[in-house]
Amino acid sequence: MKEISFEKINGSGLKIGVVVARWNSAVTYPLRDACLQALKDAGVEKEHIFVQDVPGSYEVVYGAKHLIEQKHVDAVVAIGCLIKGATMHFEYIAEAVSQGIMKLNTETSVPVIFGVLTCLTEEQAISRSTGDNNHGYAWGQSAIEMASLKKS
Ligand code: DLZ
Questions:
Q1: Which domains occur in the chain, in start order?
Q2: Is 23 in the pocket of ligand 1 (CB under 6 A)?
Q3: How far is the C-alpha of 123 from the C-alpha of 72, rounded, in Å?
Q4: How far apart are the first and last CA of the chain?
Q5: Can you tell me the mean pLDDT for 91-101?
Q6: Most CB contacts within 10 A, which of 5, 75, 120, 127?
Q7: Is 114 annotated as a binding residue?
Q8: What is the C-alpha separation between 117 and 2, in angstroms, rounded?
Q9: What CDD domains has UniProt attached to this entry (predicted)?
Q10: What is the dihedral sign for C-alpha 3, 5, 11, 17?
Q11: Is this prediction's pTM over 0.85?
């Protein structure tokens, strides 16, 4: 299995935003919880964590921008889950969200972690959001690493 490895990360003093889509919340909420656990394990203070719910994945870009502008966070994790259906919605939203997150990374000084699962089936989404394969934990660690880089 491919995993990201992390050197020592220290989240103390860093402000981290977490924006979470409620669409497919059975998947996104466990991802959010694992992300929050990673922040806690790395020493990010409770009062430095800003969680913002939004309706769906399409809205995570605006939610991330809001946290950057209003809470002055050092990094954001944008969490959503797109599951391919019978229409073209999946393709349009996935494209818009990935471009939107990339734009925030290049046009603001704040790193935004791509925490949007794009799955072909519900089974894939559940597999990536549960147990040892819950990607949310590594996204939290990634946010700390990138926030530290921003401040370095
Ligand atoms: C409309 C829609 C569809 C069809 N599928 C998903 C999905 O799989 N995952 C997700 O997070 N959101 C979905 N949405 C909702 C859009 O992201 C968005 O919230 C609405 O189009 C309103 O802008």
A1: 16-151 (3.40.50.960)
A2: yes
A3: 36
A4: 31
A5: 97
A6: 75
A7: yes
A8: 16
A9: Lumazine_synthase-I
A10: negative
A11: yes
